[in-house]
DNA sequence: GTCAAAGTTTACGTTAACGTAAAGTGTATG
DNA sequence: CATACACTTTACGTTAACGTAAACTTTGAC
């Protein structure tokens, strides 16, 4: 939010040989960190908070596609102002889904509905804030114009 | 964000006599607090952080329309995940506008552009998150349906 | 083998945004 | 006049989300 992080668009070379299993490669913590512009510390912290659960190869953490996706979703949630606790709630429910009982599933639907309502509120907030910024923008340009004329 | 604050819709009695100056009434800190569902402490804190500057009547803080609007904007910014420092930046620039020099005005326009870009990123994040939630929702309902059939 | 790079654990530090408690002031009301 | 209520200042406490430092292991390169 306050990071001014310009989204890094890594240009993939289009001449890569098709992988046999293009979906199931793994990542080190450093790779993920660079990929998402966070520190390894952050990723370990998310694990500690129950948001990630990478395999181990000896001592080292091995991240799979699923982990990468989870990290992506987590960071997206963060950008939208959700707390890690809130994000975990959704993520864990989602994982518990396949064998979930009716009560759990209904709870999940409830949570989803809540989050959706919050997103809707955010959309409205964004809309209003944009209007205000348009106004400020216009005034500033006007003022600049005035300065130019009589300057 | 994590407050589950249901927006309180205060039903205004429609039989109030028309105020002579309907726009320039004042508010106590408690009134504003209730109005926006925050504590007085929060409002005082925002003042301390340079986001509000109410008049005083003796020792007591007197808030005017302008202050109320500022508080509203501040809370909106917060809901969108902006820090108080970021919010202050915009608000103070805005206030310095009328007599602003060209450099300040351009700086303001820059800030506005940055914030706008951030809002756009948020819109995209919301869009993606919604898609994912739609998916989770559908799966959960399917699973519930299955349980109902073979239950 | 050794050196650098990347990884690990443990633990204390930091910042933002308030919460909470104590102690005092002002005023309207029974 | 006493009491209740809303307000004030001062100051220490708390939580989330990491940062940072220290000390150690693993691993590929030379």
Q: What is this structure's SSE topology?
A:
The structure is a homodimer of 151-residue chains.
Chain A: H1 29-36, H2 40-48, E1 55-57, E2 60-62, H3 65-79, H4 84-95, H5 102-150
Antiparallel strand pairs in A: 1-2
Chain A binds a DNA duplex (30 and 30 nucleotides) through residues 28-30, 39-42, 44-45, 49, 58-61, 78, 83-85.
H/I helix tally of chain A: 5
- What's the mean pLDDT score of chain A? 85
- Ranges of chain A where pLDDT stays below 50 over 5 or more residues in a row are 1-17
SSE sequence of chain A, one letter per element:
HHEEHHH
Count every beta strand of chain A, where a strand is a DSSP E run of 2 or more residues: 2
Fraction of residues in helix of chain A: 55-70%
CATH class of the largest domain in chain A: Mainly Alpha
Provide the gyration radius of chain A in Å. 22 Å
Per DSSP, what share of the residues of chain A sits in E-state strands of 2 or more residues?
under 5%
How many independent structural domains of chain A? 2
Order of strands in the sheet with the most strands of chain A?
Answer: 1-2
Q: What structural category characterises the helix and strand content of chain A? A: mainly alpha
**Which protein chains are joined by the largest interface, and how many residues does each one contribute?**
A-B, 50 and 49 residues
Task: Tell me the distance between the termini of chain A.
Answer: 37 Å
Query: What oligomeric assembly is this protein in?
Result: homodimer
């Amino acid at each position: 939010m306050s990071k001014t992080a310009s989204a890094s668009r890594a240009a993939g070379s289009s001449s890569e040989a098709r992988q046999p299993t293009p979906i199931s490669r793994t990542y080190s913590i450093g790779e993920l960190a660079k990929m998402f512009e966070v520190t390894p510390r952050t990723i370990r912290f998310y694990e500690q908070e129950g948001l990630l659960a990478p395999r181990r190869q000896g001592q080292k953490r091995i991240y799979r596609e699923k982990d990468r996706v989870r990290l992506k979703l987590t960071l997206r949630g963060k950008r939208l102002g959700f707390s890690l606790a809130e994000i975990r709630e959704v993520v864990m429910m989602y994982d518990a889904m396949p064998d979930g009982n009716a009560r759990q599933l209904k709870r999940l639907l409830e949570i989803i509905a809540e989050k959706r309502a919050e997103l809707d509120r955010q959309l409205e907030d964004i809309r209003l804030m944009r209007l205000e910024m348009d106004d400020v923008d216009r005034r500033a340009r006007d003022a600049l114009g005035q300065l130019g004329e009589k300057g």
